[in-house]
Structure formats: C-alpha cells, structure tokens
Design goal:
Belongs to the HD-ZIP homeobox family. Class I subfamily. This protein has a single domain, classed as Orthogonal Bundle (Arc Repressor Mutant, subunit A). The protein contains six helices and no strands. Helix 3 crosses helix 4 and helix 4 runs antiparallel to helix 6.
C-alpha cells in the first residue's frame, strides 16, 4: 500500500486552475492535464449567473445541488460565487468613485464660480461706496450752503449728517470689510 501526502490546493491555486488560459491553438500541451486547466462552459456560467442574480451567497445544501447539476465540485461553485461577489463589489466601487468624482468636480466648479461672484460683489460694493461717498460729500456741501444762506451752519454730527452717514445704518467701508473677511 502506497502512502502519499495529499496536496490540498489553496483557493488561489484552484482559481488559477479554473481560469487559466487554454493552450494556444495548434499546440498540444500534454504536460498539463485538461482537468486541472478546465474552464467553465458557457452553459455552466449562464446557470451560475442566473442563480447569482437571485442569491449572491449559496447555502451549503444549494451549493451541493448546483455542483451536481453542473458536474462541478462544490468548492468550484463556492469559489465562482466568491469571485463573482468580488467582481460585483469592485464594479460598484468603480461606479461610486465615478459618482463621487463627478460630484467633487461639480462642487469645485461651483465654489470657483461663487468666489468669482463674491469678488464681483465686492467690486460693485466698492464702486457704490465711492459713489455714495461722493454723493454724501456733494449733498452735505449743498445742504451746508443752503443752510448757510439762511445763516445756519451745519454742525458736525448734526441730525441730517447722521442719517446720511450709511446705507441702512451701516457704513459702506464696514460693509466692504465684512464682505472681504468672508
């Protein structure tokens, strides 16, 4: 009686055996037995795919049944399902990455557009502030000359000066400074 160490191939070896390339046409590779290099047939793959659509993980009893139907070892069925789940997860991660990248690109674009818009508003505020300062100066001079003609002088801090000093109670320069800080 001959005793042999039985080599139990690792799952990686089984995967390589199942999915290894067939020898190029016209070459006979007698060193490798066809059972070690066998690929799944189209019918086997079709059936495995249809089962995978309804259940991505097989119970042991179902795995044995599928293996018998297809003429495969239960371990082959198990490894096929494991690889198929890994491919599915990988494809989903790729889709998620593309979606996240698109969203990121849109956000960056929107952010840049908002920065430009903010700069335009600051520029407009500065121009309006200058125009307001000019009109206040001209307005105060006109009011002072009118009041002066009736022998009243405008005192610094008089009521009309306080009312005209800002837009909605805010000084234009402070509004601009606040906008620049944001």
């Amino acid at each position: 009686m001959e005793t042999r160490d039985h080599h139990h191939p690792s799952s990686n070896e089984l995967i390589l055996q199942q999915y290894s390339q067939a020898p190029p046409p016209g070459k006979n590779n007698s060193n490798n037995s066809s059972s070690n290099k066998r690929r799944f047939t189209d019918d086997q793959i079709r059936l495995l795919e249809s089962i995978f659509e309804s259940e991505t993980k097989l119970e042991p009893r179902k795995k044995l049944q599928v293996a018998r139907e297809l003429g495969l070892q239960p371990r082959q069925v198990s490894i096929w399902f494991q690889n198929r789940r890994a491919r599915l997860k990988s494809k989903q991660m790729e889709k998620d990455y593309v979606t996240l990248r698109d969203n990121y690109d849109k956000l960056v674009s929107r952010f840049e557009m908002l920065k430009e818009e903010k700069q335009c508003f600051i520029s407009q505020m500065e121009k309006l502030s200058e125009m307001l300062a000019e009109s206040e100066t001209n307005g105060v001079n006109n009011k002072v000359s009118k009041v002066g003609s009736t022998e009243h002088e405008a005192e610094p801090g008089s009521s009309f000066k306080q009312e005209d000093d800002g837009v909605l109670g805010l000084e234009p320069r402070k509004v601009i400074e606040k906008l620049k800080m944001q």
